[in-house]
Predict the 3D structure of the following.
Amino acid sequence: MAEILDGKQLARTIRTELKEKVAELKSSGITPGLALLLVGDNPASQVYVRSKAKACAEVGIFSIVEKRPAETTQEEVLELIARWNADPRIHGILVQLPLPAHIDEQAVLLAIDPRKDVDGFHPENMGRLVEGLPGFVPCTPAGIIEILRRYNISTVGKHAVVLGRSNIVGKPIANLLYQKSAYANATVTICHTATQDLAQYTRSADILIVAAGRPQLITGDYVREGVVVIDVGINRIEDPSAPKGYRLVGDVDFDSVAPKAAAITPVPGGVGPMTIAMLLTNTLRAATGEAFSVRQFD
Ligand code: GUN
């Protein structure tokens, strides 16, 4: 049976480490500050923003949460960002996605000062990542590298197969994994919805990163013995026997994959909790100025 990569426990460890570092920075006169913007009433987004603000408070990071109605105009959003860009108390700015359809997401992300872009979604930070320059790494991909690193799972020379090509997960994790560094240096294959004979690729993976957004897509016949599986999916499926009538599953069918895997992240409790831990890490890196001077994974 596979080793369980416990993201929940790891995130707790990271938060404890951060608490100390934040206290140190505060004693030198800098309190890290994060501004969060939530537009509209998407229930999942509300939960995420609340969890992010709570996590900030826990480690001593100052946070501002602005909640705006769904009718808010793009101009109003851009004004708020301009204000935060100029505010020296604010080191990180996070606009929770998705935004309502009448707001141009790309225009909003472009308006964030790249030095405050703790989500790492600004094209400048994506460009920095591709070129191997210091910058902000998006939180979920950063969390994946951190899991591999802290569990001493070497990626060097391995075949890493990434399922999914989103800007938030697939593209950045693929770009991280081939970088010439001790925590990457893998041979990377990216698969997506148009990939033919998906199993041919997944079966040759030493490390399989699944961010496809399809519940339990990857079953035991898609993997080989000894694979390391990172499941980024979070899907609700109906389950009349569960107290809420549903339960959370990943993009990987845990029960059939785990017996073949060397290591696997569970859902929930795997990659999910690491995302917020890395947001806090990025906010600290923004406050110290380290984000643009030191690469995160070397
Ligand atoms: N929506 C889903 N994931 C994310 C994320 O990592 N950051 C933001 N800002 N919005 C999201």
Remarks:
- The pocket of guanine is lined by residues 94-97, 119, 139-140, 168 (CB under 6 Å).
- The mean pLDDT is 98.
- Residues 29-118 form a domain with the Rossmann fold fold (CATH 3.40.50.10860).
